[in-house]
Amino acid sequence: MIGVCQDLQEGKFVTSPCFSPSLALYYSTMYLAKMFQRRADGSKREYWVLKASYWDPKTKRPRHRYLAYVGTSRTLSEKKARKLARKVSEKLGRRVTVEDLRKVKRLRITP
User: How far is CA 57 from CA 7, 9, 25, 80, in A?
Assistant: First the structure.
């Protein structure tokens, strides 16, 4: 999947199949975030997404990036976890395994 990402070292937008390789070194943690969506009828929908924190050397602050949609539940089957790991690997430009996903707080992977 090709997406647009910002190369922070050159300060311009580039199109690449993964996040800037120069920033891959700065990624520190992946975490689950709960997102909310208010519908037209007033009901509230909540879902979970996987995000990553990384250090931005230009602004000298941590930044956060959306990686993948997890679903309405924090529990994943082993098969879905493998698919999620593949998707995150493409976005980050480095190999992410199911074992890496097991280290994410609040994310449960069932056999």
Answer: 11, 8, 11, 34
Q: What is the pLDDT of residues 53-88, one digit of tens each?
A: 888 889 999 999 999 999 999 999 999 999 999 999
Give the model's pLDDT for residue 68: 93
pTM of the model: 0.67
The tally of domains found in the chain comes to 1
6 falls within a domain: no
* Domain range enclosing 52: 27-110
Residue 13 lies in a domain: no
Local structure of residue 99 (DSSP, 8 states): H
Parallel, antiparallel or unpaired: strands 61-71 and 44-56 = antiparallel
User: Is residue 26 predicted with pLDDT exceeding 90?
Assistant: no
- DSSP-H helix ranges across the chain: 21-24, 78-92, 98-102
Distance CA 3, CA 14 (A): 9
Cα(72)–Cα(47) distance, integer angstroms? 4
